[in-house]
């Protein structure tokens, strides 16, 4: 899929998923390019249509964008729970298992997600796959001793690569951690893998979000389509 078409599908899905946000809600705002389009649309609705909601952001970038657009942003610790979180994803399979973290925001995204009553993802159709894993799996790791975590992952055959930013420096997350991208190609046992990763000392969190999402709004050429998770929907 070319980038222009992909952006068109992301935009249409982002506008559709904005309808989920109602007056008075506390809304978790995810991160990434698709959520950026969602936040633009929500900002427009706040300014032009008087939509009123309170946001909790999953990254410094999203918080900055939302505030600039006049959206009220508060800290996660200042709310009891979040009514709805809308986020993007890198890949989603038919069991509603997904990979997130392409932008390095998976830790804050997962903390916001587990404190949300409902999670909805917004993606374009290129992200819907039979088996997740072709997209590298981001793992958030404490910098101290991270070469040893890297060595362990190498031994396990996970093909880890330390993420670098565009300038070639080691990428730092909003919590000042680093990201190891695992090139797993196909993840056939996501639950077992998630368990193994989280038990590795030095690992803070990983980008496997398993059966957490209630609905996925998919931007398709025929128009946005909503997939409902029968276990959570
Ligand atoms: O860390 C980044 C997030 O998990 C994003 O939500 C994910 O990478 C999807 O981003 P995009 O909408 O740019 O494809």
Automatic annotation (TrEMBL):
It is an enzyme of class 5 (isomerase). The keyword Isomerase applies. Keywords: Isomerase. It catalyses: aldehydo-D-ribose 5-phosphate = D-ribulose 5-phosphate. Its EC number is 5.3.1.6. Pfam families: Rib_5-P_isom_A (PF06026). InterPro entries: NagB/RpiA_transferase-like (IPR037171), Ribose5P_isomerase_typA_subgr (IPR020672), Ribose5P_isomerase_type_A (IPR004788). Pathway: Carbohydrate degradation; pentose phosphate pathway; D-ribose 5-phosphate from D-ribulose 5-phosphate (non-oxidative stage): step 1/1. One of its GO terms (cellular component) is cytosol. The keyword Ribosomal protein does not apply. Substrate binds at residues 31-34, 87-90, 100-103, 127. GO terms for molecular function: ribose-5-phosphate isomerase activity. Transmembrane segments: none annotated. One of its GO terms (biological process) is pentose-phosphate shunt, non-oxidative branch. Gene3D superfamilies: 3.30.70.260, 3.40.50.1360. It comes from the Bacteria. The active site is at 109 (proton acceptor). Homodimer. Belongs to the ribose 5-phosphate isomerase family. Catalyzes the reversible conversion of ribose-5-phosphate to ribulose 5-phosphate. This is Ribose-5-phosphate isomerase A. It comes from Oenococcus kitaharae DSM 17330. The lineage of its organism: Bacteria, Bacillati, Bacillota, Bacilli, Lactobacillales. The gene is rpiA.
């Amino acid at each position: 899929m070319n980038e222009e078409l992909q952006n068109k599908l992301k935009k249409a899905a982002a506008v559709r998923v904005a309808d989920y946000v109602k007056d008075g809600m506390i809304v978790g705002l995810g991160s990434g390019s698709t959520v950026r389009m969602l936040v633009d649309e929500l900002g427009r609705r706040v300014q032009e249509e008087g939509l009123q909601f309170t946001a909790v952001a999953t990254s410094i970038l999203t918080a900055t964008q939302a505030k600039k657009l006049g959206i009220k942003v508060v800290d996660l610790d200042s709310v009891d729970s979040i009514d709805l979180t809308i986020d993007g994803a890198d890949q989603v399979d038919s069991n509603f298992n997904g990979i997130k973290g392409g932008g390095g925001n998976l830790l804050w995204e997962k903390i916001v997600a587990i404190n949300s009553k409902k999670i909805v993802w917004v993606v374009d159709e290129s992200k819907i796959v039979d088996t997740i894993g072709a997209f590298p799996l981001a793992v958030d790791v404490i910098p101290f001793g991270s070469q040893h975590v890297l060595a362990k992952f190498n031994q396990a055959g996970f093909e880890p690569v330390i993420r670098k930013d565009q300038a070639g420096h080691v990428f730092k997350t909003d919590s000042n951690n680093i990201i190891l991208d695992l090139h797993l190609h196909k993840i056939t046992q996501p639950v077992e893998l998630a368990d193994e990763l989280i038990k590795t000392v030095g690992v803070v969190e990983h980008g496997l979000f398993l059966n957490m999402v209630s609905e996925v709004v998919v931007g398709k050429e025929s128009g946005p389509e909503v997939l409902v998770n029968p276990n959570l929907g």
